[in-house]
Design a protein that fits this description.
There is one protein chain. 10% of the residues lie in helices and 44% in strands. It has 162 residues and is mainly beta. Strand 3 and strand 4 (67-77) form a beta hairpin. The longest helix has 13 residues, at 132-144. The two termini are 27 Å apart.
């Protein structure tokens, strides 16, 4: 089964229905970064749409040594396909970064990248699993965009998804 995806240059790429994007996404894999603990488990990103202002509230959570660590941010879509967002997690990370959704299948997975000077990537899923062939294809999408697809590390989930 092949993935259908488009490269996200300018306004190209998959259309993302912001209403359908709402809810909890499980971090299936990520590239190493300085703002997530290497020991983090049960990492989730929850999105809630404020349609009136056309923005998303984002709550990232991770479990580190039994403690829940969370950061709340805001994402503002910057193109008509809603696959590019300006995201900030002030005061935790007082910078704004562009997040791009390179590949997306509603209700299944989202491949998100960010970073202007350093490149970060996340594979998010609606449940805690992903078909191995799809994961390999998503790694190929990352590499085609200049991201370190081979550096993806699987995220451990100890809590059952509901």
């Amino acid at each position: 089964m092949g993935l259908s995806f488009s490269f996200c240059y300018e306004d190209d790429g998959p259309h993302v229905d912001l209403e359908g994007y709402q809810g909890v996404w499980y971090e299936f894999a990520r590239t190493p970064n300085w703002f997530e603990s290497a020991y983090a488990t049960d990492v989730t990103a929850s999105y809630r749409l404020d349609a009136r202002f056309r923005r998303l509230t984002i709550v990232n959570r991770q479990l580190v040594n039994g403690n829940v660590i969370s950061a709340t941010g805001m994402g503002i879509p910057i193109n008509e396909h809603n696959n590019r967002l300006l995201v900030t997690f002030t005061p935790h990370l007082p910078v704004t970064s562009e997040y791009r959704i390179l590949a997306y299948e509603e209700g299944v997975y989202s491949l998100v990248v960010s970073g202007t000077w350093s490149k970060h990537a996340w594979v998010l899923t609606r449940d805690q699993s992903l078909d191995p062939d799809t994961f390999e294809e998503l790694k190929g999408v990352l590499i085609a965009h200049g991201y370190p697809g081979d550096d993806l590390q699987l995220t451990t989930h100890t809590l059952r998804s509901c």
